[in-house]
Amino acid sequence: NRLDKTVVMVTTDIAEAAFFADYVVLMRDGQIIQQGTLAELAHTPSEPFVEQFINAQRNPLANLDKALA
User: Mean of the pLDDT values across residues 30-59?
Assistant: First the structure.
């Protein structure tokens, strides 16, 4: 069932984002740092902050694999 609605959800939990989102926008200090799929953020971080944010979460690649399944 698709609702064809856009929902904006704010979270600092990458696993939660992986579960709910098709598209992620990572922000710092009110500025967009990187946007795209979680796979894009994880595999091609635009700057060290993105990599650090993703790696700070528990089992980020396991969460990514679940999200992509």
Answer: 89
Write out pLDDT tens, residues 10-21. Answer: 998 888 888 888
The residue type of 37 is: T
Q: Output the pTM of the full model.
A: 0.71
Sequence-distant (6+) residues with CB within 8 A of 41 are 24, 26, 34, 50, 54
CA dihedral (19, 57, 9, 16) in degrees, to 10, reads 20
C-alpha span between 38 and 41 (Å, rounded):
5
3-state secondary structure of 37: coil
| Alpha helix ranges (H) inside 1-69 | 14-20, 38-43, 48-56, 60-68
Residues ≥6 apart with Cβ < 8 Å to 17: 9, 11, 24, 38
